[in-house]
Amino acid sequence: MPQAASTVNRYTTVAIVLHWAIALMIIGLILFGLLMTQEWVPNRFAIYQWHKSIGITVLILSALRLMWRLTHRPPALPASMPLWQRNASHATHGLFYALMIVMPLLGWAMVSASELPIPTVLYGLVGLPDMPGVPESEAVEGRFRLLHEIGAKLFIALIVLHVGAALKHHFKDKDDVLRRMIPWLNKHRLKTKV
Fold first, then answer.
1. Where are the strands (E) in the chain, listed by range?
2. pLDDT at position 67, please?
3. What is the CATH number of domain 13-189?
4. What is the C-alpha R_g of the chain?
5. Are the C-beta atoms of residues 141 and 110 closer than 8 Å to each other?
6. What are the record keywords, sorted (predicted)?
7. How far apart are the C-alpha atoms of 80 and 155, rounded to whole Å?
8. Which residues pair with 122 in a beta bridge?
9. Nearest alpha-carbon partner for 101 in 47, 56, 50
């Protein structure tokens, strides 16, 4: 059962660390994804391997974050927030969780469907087997690639929306929405549980 949120007005330390670690990795994945598709970029093979390694790491951390979220209630949204903004916040977070899980799985399925015999070696240390049940097929790989690209564009749009909303709450609304995830902005106003 999720913990009570009545005296908590920021996310837990675990939630904050997972949020920022995953956020930085996703930004890195987007940058790597853009770079590795450019012919002029040197050492593209290494970039592909890093992209796959970080993607699987995001999958693992996102599963942990989702388990944490299901057992630890987030801080309440400001009472002054209109219902449509609350609904938009919940929808955006739901889409983020879905993409954080689905995108690495789509990437794994895509490389598993590839007819090229290129192994995936996570961080140069651990081999990742092909996803079970995915046939080697150029057509199947193409479908997973298209879904992965659409997901990446959706991720970028959600990031822009998420950051824009957080900045709007901080600078225009002057509420605690951003400070819930960046508590050092104003430490003395925050109560927390670890």
1. 120-122, 126-128
2. 95
3. 1.20.950
4. 19
5. yes
6. Cell membrane, Electron transport, Heme, Iron, Membrane, Metal-binding, Transmembrane, Transmembrane helix, Transport
7. 28
8. 126
9. 56
pLDDT of the residue at 76: 87
The three-class DSSP label of residue 174 is coil
At 25, the pLDDT band (50, 70, 90 cuts) reads very high
Total count of residues recorded for the chain: 194
Write the DSSP string, 97-133: HHHHHHHHHHHHHHHHH-SS---EEETTTEEEPPPTT
The pLDDT assigned to 37 comes to: 86
For the stretch 136-183, pLDDT in tens is 999 999 999 999 999 999 999 999 999 999 999 888 888 888 888 886
- Residue 168's closest CA among 55, 46, 85? 85
pLDDT digits over 67-120, tens only? 999 999 888 888 888 999 999 999 999 999 999 999 999 999 999 999 988 889
> Exposure string (b/e) for 114-138, b if CB count within 10 Å is 16 or more?
beeeeebebeeeeeeebbeebeeee
CA–CA gap between residue 120 and residue 110 (Å, rounded): 12
Residue whose token pair is 């940058």: 31
Q: Please report where in the chains the tokens 């675990």 appear, as a residue.
A: 14
The rounded distance, in Å, linking the Cα atoms of 88 and 85 is 5
